[in-house]
Amino acid sequence: MKKFQNSAHTFVHESLRGLAEVHADILAVHLDPTYVVRRENTPGQVAVISGGGSGHEPLDVGYVGQGMLAAACPGEIFTSCTPNQIVAAAQAAEQGAGCLFIVKNYRGDLLNFETALDMLDFDCSTVVVDDDASVDTSPHSVGRRGAAGTLIVQKVVGAAAAAGASLAECKTVGCRVNSQTASAGVSFQGCMDPITGSPTFVIGADEIEFGVGLHGEPGRQRIPMASAENLAARMLDTIMRDLKPKPEHRLLLCVNGFGATPLSELYVLFNAASGHLKARGLNIHCSLVGNYATSLDTPGGSITVTVLDDEIASLWLAPVHTAALRW
């Protein structure tokens, strides 16, 4: 195993120290307990907080900043953050209007955020992200998993909070955008876990894992290697069955890399996906391509589609300034 690291056991903290130094104008990092908090939180604004295992960067810590997350709680690699992290982050970020937790639909995340919510003495609520349309059940999750759609929910809810929406209004729009978002992903091999030094799974040279999760867990089907056109069509078939968009709908199309896929390949996948959607008579209103919700050094990627309404489109396009997303 060849990685830029000093010790697997200090990897997350050293990475966060680097993040803090590079983006000191945007965020601050606390290490005991570990959380990342926005430098400037606005009094009277709902604090939008997310978190989960590390290894998905820039999700979640890279999205702390204006117009998105007030704080994020990174656990160890592929391991949920703890309740004491969440409580400390919420206490640091809360500005008198309560906290909204954006939680991926994994057992550990759900349990620990629920425990933290019970420990806090101010108003808190939760939006559970379960956009992964490729699996209905998994030993790693409670039903559908949270995937790259998480960043879309975080962006939309963060923009609503920045615009002065109440805790209830933020939750409502968060649940709505989650219900209008679906993802499907593929990987060409498992990622290399820096703790164990072993791949999360082994796959044949001519095989693809279809429906892979953000933690490198296997998907629902192992299929032969195929062209970008074919893979885009298969992923979009899964997504379209879930969302059932109509020609009058406007779509957000996000092509996300899992950490080891060149940007040039992601643009090839986007081009294929865009062509398939247009052939169905569907309108791509917004787009995003890059490594936004990764799985360490996994080669592969995912497609996420969100059906936009006027409010969600406006909130998606609202200004944002974070380490990893800004416009």
Describe this structure in words.
The protein has 327 residues and is an alpha/beta fold. The strands form three sheets. Strands 1-2-5-3-6-7 form a six-stranded mixed β-sheet, with helices on both faces. Helix 7 links the parallel strand 11 and strand 12. Helix 6 packs across helix 7. The model has no long low-confidence stretch (mean pLDDT 95).
Cα-atom radius of gyration: 19 Å
Overall spatial form: globular
Tell me the total number of β-strands: 14
Poorly predicted runs of 5 or more residues: none
Query: What is the count of DSSP helices, taking H or I runs of 4+ residues?
Result: 8
Query: Which structural class best describes the helix and strand composition?
Result: alpha/beta
Distance between the termini: 37 Å
Strand order in the largest sheet: 1-2-5-3-6-7
**What characterizes the major β-sheet?**
6 strands, mixed
What is the percentage of strand-forming residues? 15-25%
Q: Would you tell me the overall average pLDDT? A: 95
Residues in helices, as a percent range: 25-40%
Written as H for each helix and E for each strand, in order along the chain, the element string is HEEEEEHEHEHHEEEHEHEEHE
| Oligomeric state of shown chains | single chain
